[in-house]
Amino acid sequence: MRILVTGGAGFIGSHLCGKLLGLGHQVVCVDDLFTGSEDNIKHLLNNPQFKFIRHDIVEPLYLEEKIDQIYNLACPASPVHYQHNPVHTIKASTIGVINMLGLARKHGARILQASTSEVYGDPQTHPQTEEYRGNVNTIGPRACYDEGKRCSETLCFDYHRMHGMEIKVIRIFNTYGPRMAFNDGRVVSNFILQALKGEDLVIDGDGSQTRSFCYVDDLVEGIIKMMNSDKKITGPINLGNPGEFTIKELAELVIKLTDSKSEIKYTGKFREDDPMQRCPDIAKAKEILDWQPTIRLEDGLKKTIEDFKKRL
Length: 312
Fold this sequence. Notes:
Elements: E1 2-6, H1 11-22, E2 26-31, E3 50-54, E4 69-72, H2 79-82, H3 86-93, H4 95-107, E5 110-116, H5 143-163, E6 167-172, E7 175-176, H6 187-196, E8 201-203, E9 210-212, E10 214-215, H7 216-227, E11 237-239, E12 244-246, H8 247-258, E13 264-266, H9 283-289, H10 297-311
């Protein structure tokens, strides 16, 4: 098949492109390189089955050759990046998604939209099931991403109802692994960099807030399984690791695995609208996709730390 991956030079997108090429597909990678990097795909550029196009999906994209599937991952996904230009972040999840849905309709392609656990906001139910409708601040500093992704889901289902298009919607929970950007402000990359440099690991609040961390290889497998599931399966479906850790536990594990002399420091103040608990219920993914993560946090962190050491 000929497959389009938007956001394909990003952290998750580059791993997805590599996996799809390994499965024998032709891959067209589209990325504006705002948060992605050509370094992430440099090992793919000489592959005749791979094509890279630098393009922002907020602008219309015209492709002559037939496209069979579209994985739409294009959108800044970390607070540092999506708050840098919040209006453009909203555009990526609205105008950009409309453009990709239009392209999919033109080519008769199946489209998968990467949504996020952030649609649940600061959840009042735990763990979060797909039926939970969320607790999101519509006017807060994170709303450009949270509400943008909620709208992207709405658009997909409206195109599905209006035009009978084959859509797939996934909600991605915290993911980590090699090729994470150093400057993305995410807790895993922050802690690894701080530990490797011998700096204090800085934790917002008191470290009691929880997250669930999914290794990127596990996530990519789930994404591909969702794309190729029966056309009646639209989602949304949670993809993430239900193993739950406090931020303090993560910091302690990173210090241990890096053999760092770093210490943990607490700010005593939580970020605005930052969720206190985040853990996916993946019962649907297990039942419908026969998918669940297999890589333990400690094993995945070891691989991620090695990658960070090489790049540093």
